[in-house]
Each structure stands twice: as C-alpha cells, then as structure tokens.
Q: What sequence folds into this?
C-alpha cells in the first residue's frame, strides 16, 4: 500500500503548491490522479519519490507510507530500492545511450545477474520493439518508443509500484491505447501496482479502477472510475461531454458555480 496523508509542499519556502493531499494506492491496484495544468500532480509524484530538494521544494506537513514504512524522510535511492519507481514527465530517457544501456541504467538496484537478465526478458516480452532496437541510440526513437523505453526502464528495477507522469503526453491516440493496454497487462500478470497521473481523463478513467481529481493543490473529488465517468462535473470539465443543452451563458454561470463548489 502507498499512503499519502495530508501532505503539504512548499517551493522556495513560500509557494504552497500542495495544500493537504491525501490518497492511497492499494497493492495490486491501478489508481489515477487527474487534474489540469499546474494542479500539482507532478509535485505530488516528486514528493513521493523524494526528488523535491534539488528544486527547492520541501514537504512541510503530512506523511507518506509505503509497504508499512514511513518514506517521507528517506532518500530517493532508498525509495527506489523499496520498489517504488517513478517514470518522469516527458519520458527523460538518456538520449545518447542505446536502448539496452537505458534499460541497464534502470536496473542499478539489481545486483543479481540472473535477475537482471530475467527482467530484461520480461521487458522485451511486453515491449518487443525494445528488443529489436536494443543497440539503437534512444534519442532516435519515436515519442511512443521512448515512452515504452521509460516504462521498460522502470520495469528493470524490480518495481512493486510504478508511478507514471502523463504517459499519454504528445502521443497519437492509437499509441496511447496500446501503451495503456500494455500497462494493464503488466498489472494483471506481474501484479505491479500503478499510480497514473494524467490530463487525458478519458483513457485514465477507462483503464484504472479508482481516481482522484486534483485542483490547485487539493483533492476535490475521488471515487471508483466508473462512478467518476458518470459524474456530471467530470463529464463536463474532464471528458468534454455536456449532458444538457442549456444556453451557453447559463452553462458558463453553472461552470463557475461548480468550480466554486469544488474548490470550497
Ligand atoms: N521548482 C518549482 N519552483 C517553484 N514553483 C514550482 C516548481 N515546480 C512547479 N512549480 C509550481 O507548482 C505548481 C504545480 O506544478 P506541477 O508541475 O506539480 O503541476 P502539474 O499538475 O504536474 O501540471 P502539468 O499538468 O502542467 O504537468 C505550478 O503552479 C508550478 O508553477
Ligand atoms: Mg506535471
């Protein structure tokens, strides 16, 4: 279980970006964290992975527990070795290294050669293209292939949990569907739990079981994804579906009222 309890994060000692965030990802589950630009999604993942410090960010309140251990005062490498791995926003593969070298870098916590080989075989099973391109320079891969490589690199580290920061970003819809299908398979077959941060609410809600919606550093709504997909506000703001055909101006007033309700 990953459990985030009432976390507050401040940048440069002044800017409060997370204002009391709580959520949980039970073992074996797929959970999504949705929200528009600047809501604080990436900051949340960075807080969990302990990579805020280099950006003058710090957790000023709250706790984070993983597998029964308190991790909010641990170092990033310790958290990785516990099996909690983050795939950063914008993929961030090592563009000058080959595909294999990138994967190998992901396995820095794995000391056993046999385990390393087994992990590599597993990655190739889910992403055959990475096996075919193993000697190619990662910088020449397409965006979709780089996203696969970033996920593959996380798989190399014996993950119990993988946190993905906007895996759909900049990818064509067909590729997004393919990547989410593979993620679902990994969850089913390997038992890996996933926390998926997305702006693409449609794919995230259809692929995960529970969702949290974030605005301005707070969770404003959470629930089973099936229920969230039926929620009028979620349909309007995140899925772009309007269920009634009221006048535009009235709709805008409603929009404003609902936003106020969410944020209050
Ligand atoms: N290192 C930093 N220093 C100061 N402010 C920051 C820093 N990183 C992020 N912020 C601010 O914190 C807020 C939340 O940013 P964050 O990147 O967590 O949002 P996000 O939900 O991931 O957005 P997006 O969907 O655009 O990726 C934004 O207002 C952003 O400008
Ligand atoms: Mg982000």
A:
């Amino acid at each position: 279980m990953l459990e985030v309890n009432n976390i507050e994060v401040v940048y440069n000692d002044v800017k409060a970006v997370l204002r009391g965030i709580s959520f949980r990802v039970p073992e074996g589950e797929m959970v999504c964290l949705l929200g528009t630009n600047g809501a604080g999604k990436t900051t949340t993942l960075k807080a969990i992975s302990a990579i805020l410090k280099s950006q003058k960010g710090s957790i000023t309140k709250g706790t984070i527990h993983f597998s029964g251990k308190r991790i909010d005062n641990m170092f990033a490498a310790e958290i990785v070795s516990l099996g909690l791995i983050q795939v950063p926003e914008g993929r961030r593969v090592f563009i000058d290294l080959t595909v294999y070298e990138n994967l190998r870098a992901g396995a820095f916590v794995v000391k056993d050669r046999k385990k390393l080989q087994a992990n590599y075989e597993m990655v190739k099973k889910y992403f055959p293209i990475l096996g075919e391109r193993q000697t190619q320079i990662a910088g020449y891969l397409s965006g979709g292939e780089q996203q696969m490589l970033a996920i593959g690199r996380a798989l190399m580290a014996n993950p119990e949990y993988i946190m993905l920061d906007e895996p759909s970003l900049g990818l064509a819809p067909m590729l997004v569907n393919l990547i989410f299908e593979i993620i679902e398979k990994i969850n089913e077959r390997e038992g890996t739990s996933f926390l998926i941060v997305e702006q693409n609410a449609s794919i995230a809600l259809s692929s995960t079981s529970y969702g949290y919606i974030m605005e301005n550093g707070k969770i404003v709504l959470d629930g089973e994804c099936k229920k969230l997909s039926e929620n009028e506000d979620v349909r309007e703001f995140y899925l772009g579906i309007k269920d009634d055909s009221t006048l535009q101006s009235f709709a805008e007033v409603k929009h404003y009222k609902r936003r106020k309700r969410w944020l209050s």
Remarks:
- The first helix runs from residue 41 to 49.
- Residues 2-263 form a domain with the Rossmann fold fold (CATH 3.40.50.300).
- The chain has a mean pLDDT of 90.
